[in-house]
What does this fold into?
Amino acid sequence: MIFTRSALMALLLLVTFGVSFAILSPIFTDAQLEQKTFVTHSGRVIETSGEVLDPVYTVSTVDFDPDEFLRNFEYGRISISDNGQTIRDYTIIAEDDKVQEISPGVFYNVWTFNGTVPGPTIRATEGDLVRIHFINNGSKSHTMHFHGIHPAEMDGVFEIVGGNGGQFTYEFEAAPVGVHPYHCHVMPLEEHIVHGLYGVFIVDPKEGRPPADELVMVLNGFDTDFDTENNFYAANTIPFYYQHHPIQINTDQLIRIYVVNMIEFDPINNFHLHGNLYQYYPTGTDLVPSFYTDMITLSQTERGIMEFQYDYPGKYLFHAHKVEFSEKGWVGLFLVKSNSTSETSYGN
Ligand SMILES: [Cu+2]
It folds into this structure.
């Protein structure tokens, strides 16, 4: 009796499964026919019938070079006013439809200032008149909010710039001396920042800083599955980039890093340097360092200037000492070459 009941149950299950499969199989077939096309930043065309998160079907892809970004500073179109003030004009265009392969095989809808994440590093001297001609070619509203000192109407918070060609001119005197972030300030703010609408604004002191090999590092990350946790971390957007492409520097040369933490979701980030310590200037506002350390901790938009030089050639790691971040991409290498005759050595 027991065997017979079991056999009947099994038969019933088989029939139920068979009927379900017969009903559902046409749906699977339809889904399989739906091909989606992407173009990678290298120009490769990819077709997939798989499920795609946050799809943006576009041929407008981003080609970002972390080596170029590292030492690139935008000084603007320079003119001198009647009263002798230096004027720096910039044109910044926001877009929100580009796709970037942020890690091999991982495509993400980046929102960009002038086509990249981060946007251009804007650099001026204290007291210069900075004029940003902002054009929003995105589909959503965006603004540019600079950290620093400026009039309320130049703060990029209440003067929302509409998409599809909206414009606004931000005009203010560069102040204070230091390294500051700029970012979009449209709500929901987290969403606009984590998609990539941020960059670095450097204000040099009038007397300048000692000559150095200067680098910009934006600590950032991407939440590619939209669960308000980052899946990838990096210095300058591409996970593990400077581990695979070590940054070449010289011994006995002053290295100056402008570091800005633009990580969302995680309350802290940090920066550990191997085989060395660095002088640290929080926010870069003082010309005298506050710390001599190999470890700083940074909250959202916290930033500063690091200065150091290596005495010994070789390979040295730098990375988040929050190990989860370094294991998900925020790790790099300095390749230090011997250069004992450098003319730009600290103290020369
Ligand atoms: Cu925005």
In short: The chain has five helices and 22 strands. Residues 142, 184, 186, 192, 197 surround copper (II) ion (CB under 6 Å). Helices lie at 2-33, 66-70, 189-194, 241-244, 323-327.
